Amino acid sequence: MLIGEVARRSGVSARMLRHYESLGLVRPSGRTGSGYREYSGEDIRRIFHIESLRSLGLSLREIGRALDDPGFTPTELVGDLIGRTRERIAAETELLTRLRRIDAADPDGWEGVLRVVALLQALDSKSADARQRAALSSVDEVGVPVEALVEAALSETEPNVAGALRWALARSGDGGPALLAEGLESPVAAVRERAVRSLAEMPGGEAAAQLRQALAHRDVVVRGYASLALGTRGVADAVPTLIDMIVDGRNDVDAADALSVVASDTAVADDIATRLVDRLAHGTAPAPVRGRLTQALASVPGAKALRALVELSHDDDRAVALTAAYVLRLRDARDR
């Protein structure tokens, strides 16, 4: 079969067939009487083998080795191809993400594009100072993509930079809470903590709704930060978790402060007092736990809390009794 016919049947151009021949990949088995290349059936099968291997991403040199080396085993080469393909996909995905963020920013002309690109690069800098400056300046930039801020906040390990990113996110407008909520489902505990801490500093109903859902999260740290944030906003749904934190001694001072904010609603105060008294009534509660619960009662108004403190002032545990008596004197002095 002559080269033109081979080209038509194989889909490989005559020019490429000649290139293969120059590299020694395929050689026509014969020549016609007029000197034209003539390909045998075996030659054509080799051409199809070459094209098949090219479709896998092999270089022509690798293809030549695969076809001509009797001892060649494809396992190592295929593994290398998988690694290179993954790297290429990761690079292309990163580029696509960056392009989408620039598009979402809707920059005004090339100057705007360059500003967004510079900001994205700074947020990804190895320098903590550069990342912090980028986070702080992002508030003044028009159209900074919130996705970039969320990604940076979820991956940031430097405390000062993380704080700047949370501050920027709190002023970023819509979209942030939903993206941060996705971070709550990360398999990495540190990422979940960064997500809930960022949500805790975001204003608005959408963030509050995500925090309410986080109260039932499997991660105790996520539940804790969510309850502290909601408690300081006076949300009664946070009360059970706040009391658990006081019992467990996890951020118990902050939890008691948040509980006092919720207790400022007189309709909720008696319920809080009842819950605290129920925990105190557990005979197996260690002395430090009973002490923390007694201190928490100090900031709960109402008759229910007052009666509980009077009883606790005569408690068998001297530390609890002294704490309750001290709180009662403070309340008495305040009410005069």
From TrEMBL:
Among InterPro entries, the record links this protein to: ARM-like, ARM-type_fold, DNA-bd_dom_put_sf, MerR-type_HTH_dom, MerR_fam, PBS_lyase_HEAT
* Coiled-coil regions, chain positions: none
Keyword DNA-binding (UniProt) = yes
Q: Does the keyword DNA-binding apply?
A: yes
What range(s) does the HTH merR-type domain occupy? 1-69
What keywords appear on the UniProt entry?
Answer: DNA-binding
Q: Which PANTHER family match?
A: HTH MERR-TYPE DOMAIN-CONTAINING PROTEIN, REDOX-CYCLING DRUG-SENSING TRANSCRIPTIONAL ACTIVATOR SOXR
Q: What is this protein called?
A: MerR family transcriptional regulator
Name the source organism: Streptomyces bobili
